[in-house]
């Protein structure tokens, strides 16, 4: 049985240890990718792997837990140990990580605006229920129990959000009550205000910093903060940012590989490091996060390539080799090896065989929920994907005003099946004019709202805009309208299997497109989305995530594990009126 402790240095079996770690998120890649990624981390010269644990994937609906497949944290940790790596776990209920709602489950919003990340009674009850399922799985994985886990995090960047020490202490007590006895830590930015607010240093919880440059200056801030509290712990950057995330409609952010290698060298001379990210992976499904800039939400893209040492598909980049060299210069005794590489493939192009308007098949896919006033996604579904509101207005046979009050995030508004407007939460509430100059007695309205991702960082975690769908109402003339049918489109297997492609097609509507094709061989690949508008792609029942012609990415990564030798089925949901005619693969990502 090994031991790990924190004194003036990290001590493994009583001997000093420099932690050289890299972040690999098990939930952003398929289990078959774990081994190659972990091997390449070990080959870099690392001795440790770090991962977050997102609450929202493990308790997708309240009281229902899932630790299977890509969510099997126990298997990931055991594989890391088998490959000779120690593990740092970050099971804090909030993770940021450019992940939907920072890892918090959408169903928390069903209880109204409870105070998240606080001692709010309702919130802490939910936390306790989750930890009751999670922590017994993690306890035997600790180094004190013969496993590889050397440290665990109790909160993440809390100093960038709150300062309630009672909340941090309550979380610590829950964690320790389940037999977690490895050193606990918090990680915050490296300036005094957030370290003061977000740490439990006086409770002997280790303090780590999150930064990716100016290593000497940031390490000095951490050291001074510790000294003020009579601590002489080692310095560690728990998130040494080697790249950055990307948002729709913006240029891809890149970092100079030589600059990174030089900074890594400086950091290793000062202390320990966790490269964030080592391998970023993909925000499959609807799990991409969202940035907030003022009152504007800026959703992040499906790819979590992060300009990391391994790219989205797991291939070593120039950064990998330069950082590997930097590690060797500072730590000449580390074991290193050539990384594993793989060949991506172009699987060809296949014609679309079927299409149908969502408006025409929606009643085959689900039973609508009726309500006098509009309901939010969290109220009637799992809180992800899309929500269609159908309702009828009396036609007064002249132009009339319509506006949607308080809705998130992206609204596609249709009158009698024709597209009227596209609005965002920053612009909904702008008045629209309905043309009533016709013989019809009613105007049929449809509003399709897409949840583009809840914010993962900052004050908007407790902002009503994170409740998706229509929160206020729909105003016709100057009164609120009543009478709505709700169709929550979550892309569940039950919904997808119920699509009736024999119903009427209309490319001008939000539509489903399908193709079935045969493959003799499979491999990691990309799907070319450059001729599409906006939507999602489902491969053999797996939602690859969102595409959008705003870029910067114009393709979606498809691991070979999602494909079959033999028959394959792809369904595309397109919202922008693009008539999709084929599915084409590529052996490399495509950009705007």
UniProtKB/TrEMBL annotation:
<feature type="domain" description="Beta-galactosidase 1-like first all-beta">
    <location>
        <begin position="374"/>
        <end position="489"/>
    </location>
</feature>
<dbReference type="InterPro" id="IPR019801">
    <property type="entry name" value="Glyco_hydro_35_CS"/>
</dbReference>
<dbReference type="InterPro" id="IPR031330">
    <property type="entry name" value="Gly_Hdrlase_35_cat"/>
</dbReference>
<dbReference type="GO" id="GO:0005975">
    <property type="term" value="P:carbohydrate metabolic process"/>
</dbReference>
<dbReference type="Pfam" id="PF21467">
    <property type="entry name" value="BetaGal_gal-bd"/>
</dbReference>
<dbReference type="InterPro" id="IPR026283">
    <property type="entry name" value="B-gal_1-like"/>
</dbReference>
<comment type="similarity">
    <text>Belongs to the glycosyl hydrolase 35 family.</text>
</comment>
<keyword id="KW-0378">Hydrolase</keyword>
<dbReference type="InterPro" id="IPR017853">
    <property type="entry name" value="GH"/>
</dbReference>
<dbReference type="Pfam" id="PF01301">
    <property type="entry name" value="Glyco_hydro_35"/>
</dbReference>
<dbReference type="GO" id="GO:0004565">
    <property type="term" value="F:beta-galactosidase activity"/>
</dbReference>
<feature type="domain" description="Glycoside hydrolase 35 catalytic">
    <location>
        <begin position="9"/>
        <end position="329"/>
    </location>
</feature>
<protein>
    <recommendedName>
        <fullName>Beta-galactosidase</fullName>
        <ecNumber>3.2.1.23</ecNumber>
    </recommendedName>
</protein>
<dbReference type="Pfam" id="PF21317">
    <property type="entry name" value="BetaGal_ABD_1"/>
</dbReference>
<dbReference type="InterPro" id="IPR048912">
    <property type="entry name" value="BetaGal1-like_ABD1"/>
</dbReference>
<feature type="active site" description="Proton donor">
    <location>
        <position position="157"/>
    </location>
</feature>
<dbReference type="InterPro" id="IPR001944">
    <property type="entry name" value="Glycoside_Hdrlase_35"/>
</dbReference>
<feature type="active site" description="Nucleophile">
    <location>
        <position position="239"/>
    </location>
</feature>
<keyword id="KW-0326">Glycosidase</keyword>
<dbReference type="InterPro" id="IPR048913">
    <property type="entry name" value="BetaGal_gal-bd"/>
</dbReference>
<feature type="domain" description="Beta-galactosidase galactose-binding">
    <location>
        <begin position="510"/>
        <end position="568"/>
    </location>
</feature>
<dbReference type="InterPro" id="IPR008979">
    <property type="entry name" value="Galactose-bd-like_sf"/>
</dbReference>
């Amino acid at each position: 049985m090994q031991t790990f402790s924190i004194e003036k240095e990290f001590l493994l079996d009583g001997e000093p240890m420099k932690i050289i770690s890299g972040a690999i998120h098990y939930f952003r890649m398929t289990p078959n990718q774990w081994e190659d990624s972990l091997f390449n981390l070990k080959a870099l010269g690392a001795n440790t792997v770090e991962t977050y644990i997102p609450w929202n994937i493990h308790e997708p609906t309240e009281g229902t837990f899932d630790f299977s497949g890509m969510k099997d944290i126990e298997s990931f940790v055991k594989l890391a140990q088998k490959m000779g790596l120690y593990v740092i776990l970050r099971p804090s209920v909030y993770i940021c990580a450019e992940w939907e709602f920072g890892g918090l489950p959408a169903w928390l919003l069903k209880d109204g605006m409870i105070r998240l990340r606080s001692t709010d009674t309702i919130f802490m009850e939910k936390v306790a229920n989750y930890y009751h399922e999670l922590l017994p799985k993690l306890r035997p994985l600790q180094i004190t129990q013969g496993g590889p886990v050397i440290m665990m995090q109790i909160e993440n960047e809390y100093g960038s959000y709150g300062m309630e020490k009672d909340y941090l202490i309550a979380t610590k007590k829950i964690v320790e009550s389940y037999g977690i006895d490895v050193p606990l830590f918090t990680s915050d930015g490296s300036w005094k205000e957030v370290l003061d607010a977000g740490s439990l240093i006086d409770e002997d919880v280790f303090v780590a910093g999150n930064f990716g440059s100016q290593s000497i200056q940031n390490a000095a801030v951490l050291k001074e903060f510790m000294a003020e509290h009579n601590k002489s712990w080692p310095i560690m950057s728990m998130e040494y940012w080697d790249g950055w995330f990307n948002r729709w409609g913006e240029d891809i952010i890149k970092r100079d590989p030589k600059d990174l290698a030089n900074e890594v060298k400086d950091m290793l001379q000062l202390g320990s490091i966790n490269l964030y990210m080592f391998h970023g992976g993909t925000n499959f499904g609807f799990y991409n996060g969202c940035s907030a800039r003022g009152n504007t939400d800026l959703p992040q893209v499906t790819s979590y390539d992060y300009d990391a040492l391994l790219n989205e598909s797991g291939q070593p980049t120039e950064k990998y080799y330069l950082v590997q060299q930097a590690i060797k210069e500072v730590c000449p005794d580390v074991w290193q090896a050539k990384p594993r590489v793989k060949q991506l493939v172009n699987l060809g192009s296949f014609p679309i065989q079927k299409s149908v308007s969502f408006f025409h098949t929606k009643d085959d896919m689900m039973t609508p929920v009726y309500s006098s006033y509009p309901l939010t996604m969290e109220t009637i579904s799992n809180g992800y994907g899309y929500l269609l509101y159908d309702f009828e207005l009396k036609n007064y046979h002249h132009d009339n005003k319509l506006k949607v009050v308080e809705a998130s995030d992206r609204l596609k508004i249709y009158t009698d099946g024709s597209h009227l407007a596209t609005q965002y939460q920053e612009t909904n509430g702008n008045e629209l004019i309905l043309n009533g100059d016709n013989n019809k007695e009613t105007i049929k309205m449809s509003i399709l709202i897409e949840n583009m991702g809840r914010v993962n960082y900052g004050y908007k975690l407790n902002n009503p805009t994170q409740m998706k769908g229509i929160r206020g109402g729909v105003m016709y003339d100057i009164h609120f309208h009543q009478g709505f049918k709700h169709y929550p489109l979550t892309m569940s297997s039950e919904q997808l299997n119920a699509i009736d492609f024999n119903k009427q097609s209309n490319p001008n509507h939000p539509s489903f497109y399908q193709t079935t094709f045969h493959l003799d061989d499979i491999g990691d690949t990309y799907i070319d989305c450059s001729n599409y508008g906006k939507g999602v792609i489902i491969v053999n029942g797996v939602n690859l995530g969102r595409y959008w012609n705003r870029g910067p990415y114009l393709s979606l990564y498809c691991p070979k594990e999602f494909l079959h030798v033999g028959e394959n089925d792809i369904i595309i949901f397109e919202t922008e009126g693009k008539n999709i005619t084929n599915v084409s693969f590529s052996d490399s990502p495509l950009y705007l």
